[in-house]
Amino acid sequence: MSQIRITKALSHYGICSRRDAELLIAKNRVKVNNHVLDSPIYFVNDEDVIHVDDVIVSKPSKILLWKYFKPKRVITSHKDNFGRTTLFEILPKNIGRIISVGRLDYNTEGLILLTNNGDLARKLELPATKLKRIYLCKAYGIMPKNMIQELLLGIKIDNIQYGPIFVEVYKKQNSNTWYRIKLYEGKNNEIRKVFAHFNSQVNRLIRTDYGNFSSKNMIAKSLIEIEYKEFAKLYKQETELQKN
User: Fold this and answer.
1) Number of domains in the chain
2) In the beta sheet, which residues pair with residue 202?
3) If you compute the radius of gyration of the chain from its CA atoms, what whole number of angstroms results?
4) CATH number, residue 108
5) Is 93 helix (H, G, I), strand (E, B) or coil?
6) Where is the RNA-binding S4 domain (predicted)?
7) Domain residues for 187?
8) SS3 232
9) What's the maximum distance between 2 C-alpha atoms anywhere in the chain?
10) Cα-Cα-Cα-Cα dihedral of 140, 146, 150, 155, to 10°?
11) 193: pLDDT confidence band, cut at 50, 70 and 90?
């Protein structure tokens, strides 16, 4: 690895995002060669020894990506101030240090991607990458066709602009309706907020697909490693990720 900024190195090694790396440095929690950093404008290479909270940062031998089926009532975080179960405490202990590609909210279940490489995580979660997210959504009542058409153009709710949302009726179940929803970004609680805007309550929300990755045949807490050649070729990352 040629010289790169310390924040990028910490992200690349799966420690945290670049923004969180800046916060760690501001709190004097990062050392390079036993020198406490006070600025994120610092460059490192393969010969440098990096510590975070006095624990040496091990450099992953290769880039890894997994599919995981998150259960309901699990928060996508390393810790929670309210004592709720977190995603990273229920993962297998031998998986090593990893980060999630985006988040699923507490009551949403289904597919979430995990990786040991922060640059890959950032690439996969950016809206500019245009990876589809597909959900099955169970909600009370049925959404009128004119509202479904309105969502195709995007919608602004509480001063937040949401991109196009593709909604189709999947099946009806008593007083509820299951929808298949496709979107290309993942703003916080987006689907729940959109349905609430139309006076409809979401009772269950399951993410089934992220890009070309599917949760087919997966059950709660299923963890499947994705072959490197599959995601490297798909996102044209092979050369870039090996160089950075």
Assistant:
1) 3
2) 139
3) 20
4) 3.30.70.580
5) helix
6) 4-62
7) 132-210
8) helix
9) 64
10) -40
11) very high
